Amino acid sequence: MPTPRKDRPMLMGRHVEHEVVERLLARTQAGDSGVLVVRGEAGIGKTAVLQHVRASAVAAGFRVEDAAGVEAEAAFAFAGLHQLCAPLLARATELPEPQQAALGVAFGMREGAAPDRFLVGLAVLSLLAEVAEDGPLLCVVDDAQWLDQASAQVLAFVARRVAAERVVMVFALRDSGATDVEAFTGLPELHLEGLAESDARTLLATAVRTPLDDMARDRIVAEARGNPLALLELPRGAPTVRPAGGFELPEVVSVPRRVEDGFRRRAGSLPPDTQLLLVVAAAEPTGDAALLWRAAGELEIARKAAAPAEAAGLLEFGTRVRFRHPLVRSAVYRAATPPDQRRAHGALAGVTDPQVDPDRRAWHRAQSVVGTDEEAAAELERSAGRARARGGVAAAAAFLQRAAELTPEPAVRAGRALEAAHAKHGAGASEAALELLTVAATGPLDDLQQARLELLGAQIAFHLARGGEGPRMLLDAARSLAPLDPALSRDTYLEALDAALVTGGLGPGGGVRAVAEAARAAPAPPESPRPADLLLDGLVTTFMQGYAAGVPGLRRALDAFARHERDARAENDSDDRRWLWLAGRTAMAVFDDEMVHALAARHVRLAREAGALATLPAALLVQSVMLVLSGEFSRAAEQTAIAAATRTAPLLHGQLILAAWRGRPEESTEIHATMVREAAGRGRGTEDSLAQYAMAVLHNGLGDYPAAQAAATRAFESAELTHSNLAHSELIEAACRTGQPERAADALDQLCSRALASGTPWGLGLAARSRALASTGPAAEEHYREAIERLRECRMATQLARAHLVYGEWLRRQGRRQAARQQLRTAHQLLSDMGAEAFAARAARELRATGERPRSRSAQPSDALTAQELTIARLVATGATSREVGAQLFLSPRTIEAHLRSIFRKLDIGSRRQLRDLQLP
């Protein structure tokens, strides 16, 4: 590997950073992958470090591909991703057709439905892996804070799933709360600090050709704070006659801002034509020199106007137009007068081909308008439609917002502002959506638009402050919609009911029963009710007339969801994705384990296919909880890994529940503490209740029954946890073990009556086990035996294992050691095999108390596999190809093959056929 060059002034003091880079590249040459996020303030040397990465990679035989975020490009979906991938697209023909189609639609090269965001990510991952087959690949992304939202999400997703490919991904990201990109949070980071004083003085000496007295030098070094760009630029903007007095105090203006001011002053000293040319270059984000010169021709600017800008070191004109630093671009554009900005954008719009690049032309044209312009607004509205079709919700929102600003007719402007607000909320910019709602509210709006405005306001209020006024506002919107759009009104009532469940009924009039009472006024469903209509009616009946009365209606609704075939129309898919989260939880409420698994799997599949970032978190959470309860801990762990890659799922809840069932106190306590910190200042709701449920499981496993009782009591206070029946059995076991069964009497009565009404093995088994814990004598034994027989008939392996455990504990206390050993052996084996370590240890303690030494779990070949390897082995054993497994797990085929080699080695086999013959857990 090449040694770092010490003669580059911008790299002074970066030796540690160089070592990180060298190790990263060396590891990749050896067949691994690497990811690094370089963070720091503007001018601190991020771009210089990237230059070093490039140079080192080229010397080591890497192929290097670049992209850079540009502030003005943030409105264009997948613009940054296209920059990076465009030189590689010739290899896209080697990808599976669905992945080729996803890339083609995302990049505007093919017609088709909006692509699945995760399929685009998998396609990019596969594309990079294909290219890396020819040799190691370095992908460098500068100014990642300015990437468009779609590109940032996909690239961060790829960075989290790149594994066995010889690919290095390096991102430079500016430190700033306002422009930080959350998508990259959690990736390996290298944070650049200022240069040491000795390095700063050396760099200053190379930058300033005229002598500086000691006071001037000390002042510049102090004010630059080790920022290399500041050390190079501040002296150029300081009058030499006042070397120590031409700088503001450091506390007044940040160092990057002071450097930007220096660039602004330097640009302002250039001839007028040169200044205008700079403005055009700053407004044109692609760096297309031919386009720039065509725009310059529109403005009658001669090519010779470029010479002063190049001589001033502000930018370079070649086949591409490159600013010396992004701060130069921002300084030039911000310093330009509004008329000059409009002239620049107008010229660019005039020379941009409306057939090849209609969206960028529409955007430039919109920026050139003074006042309003319906034609320009309509053109932006069409651009929003194209952006939405490519999956760029954030881009569509930006186009619609500007379209609303340009619209002259008040009613049309209000309608566009309302649509822009919907798009902004869908893109995750809820505060901006509220501002647009204020514009829309100035109207005039028709009655339906006004009702939709109320609905969106309620949804945003609930999103920003869980609880509070959310459920009540949703009810108000539902009432307004009733005579105007009955179907939307019913959906809104259902949304209000769901909100009341999730928040625990916080806020005035927000209790579940109060919301159910209000929902009785919902318009009648159509002659052929949708699954969501049946679900609303079933829930209203349940909360108003009782569980037993509601079960038949809830089952009809769940059957309707299960039968509901996917329709080709996107809105029906969207409807399924929207309500499957509530349907899955309702299946838990009626103890239908097969239905929960089926609906959760379908929900995850639909959310993944649509790239639905708003619904995937709920889908993954329900599925992971059910996998844990079924004893499939390794599959639940892999779901958590996928969720971590998407950065969209409620990671901590899934992680906490899994860690609690695994019986890992330190891990559980750490996750719980993080959740408490992150929830500070927010109202309690399902998030807190799920955490309390998990801690109750942990403490019951550890045998700390007072702590389990305290946590389970808090969980049982939640409307959601009582509705889904998760908290009952934990509270009952803890209370009985502390000798206070009366503290769980309500939970026991409710659980038993619900189990009888549901009639399912899961419900009846849990109820029988709970009755046994609260009983004595022959009745207790009868209930224990019933619990085991019932739970054998369902998928709830964890609950079956715990039934054997508590029965064995009871038998030991009755002095029936031989019978106790049989139950405890079974419990110990089941719990050990699934990885429920605390409950298994509890069973082992009980076995020792009977005089029997618990057997160590028989080692299995699969024990050597990681959770991900076990998941891959299971899928390959079904006959799935590496591409198919990779698509399911969001990994490249090369990574799957690398895992398979490890799996074969650990299992001492040599083929997929042998893998199919193994009995994998």
Automatic annotation (TrEMBL):
Q: Which InterPro entries match?
A: AAA_16, P-loop_NTPase, Sig_transdc_resp-reg_C-effctor, TPR-like_helical_dom_sf, Tscrpt_reg_LuxR_C, WH-like_DNA-bd_sf
Keywords in alphabetical order, please.
ATP-binding, DNA-binding, Nucleotide-binding
Question: Which residue spans traverse the membrane?
Answer: none
Q: Which SUPFAM superfamilies match?
A: C-terminal effector domain of the bipartite response regulators, P-loop containing nucleoside triphosphate hydrolases, TPR-like
Annotated signal peptide: none
Listed GO molecular functions?
A: DNA binding
Task: Name all HTH luxR-type domain ranges.
Answer: 858-921
Q: What is this protein called?
A: DNA-binding CsgD family transcriptional regulator
